[in-house]
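A protein record pairs a chain with a discrete description of its three-dimensional fold. The following entry can be read in just this way:
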Amino acid sequence: MKSATNNEALRAVLESALKSRSELQPSKGERSSDFWPAEHFGLDRVTLFRKSSTEERNEILKLCGRSVMAEAYFIEKFGMYFAAKMSLLSESDEERMLYSLFASDEALHFNWISSFVSEDSIADYARDPFIQFLDEVLQKEVRVTLSYIVQVILEGWGISHYRALIADCRDEELTRIFESILRDEARHHRSGVVLFNEQEPSTDEIEKIVGVLSHLFLMVQVGPQMVVSQIEMVKGRLSTEQKIRVFEELSCERESTKKIDLLKSLIRSANHAETILGELERSRSLRAYSALQCVVVI
């Protein structure tokens, strides 16, 4: 075990390196997690939320904001692992240089996001289905699958996701951080499309990509489970009828369809799109779930 002195010395070197790479340095101190209004999560349309006390509404919003930040924390943490792994798997000096630069980007992102979360706020999030899914993909998949799933799909998705977070964010400092991350995400996504299009994946690799995408699409199909779970954290266990109404008021089918359409557009941005989309259609992955399905599938 390293001594505290060694850890402090290493941290000092790390902070110096981080400062040399960006003028954007988050301030220290306690922060509120009330970064987004009810409208961002669709909660303004939910009767149960509107009829709750001020304290309950504030707590639900805090939990939703905490969930968003915890997800960002783990995504950026995994980003460092991804870039390092892809650098080792690279087949040219240019590709290795690119992923080494991406690793630097992800280290900055992780440092920025870390200043907005506490250990308590992320303690249970490692068990989140999406985070577990991403961890498994990064641990097990090969180079071509990783570049496609992470860069073409997830970092492409991240562009839209961060734009939405920026549009509604109440914190100016966090908004600037998301704007910087967004610029990097766009560059990472573009390079992923280029690198994937230069490869010729085997039939088995395409089949593996479809399998991973099917899992990802399912998490979109089942609607805003995070928001409903945060309501239950505050209000207590909801009945099936209450859950169905909440999903309906959150326009789960319409919103999931929008997200599915975004994923389809990202698939079309790279080669083998028709093959991949055809397989996903056959597995019924391209259809949003109704409110009832969103309740009973989990």
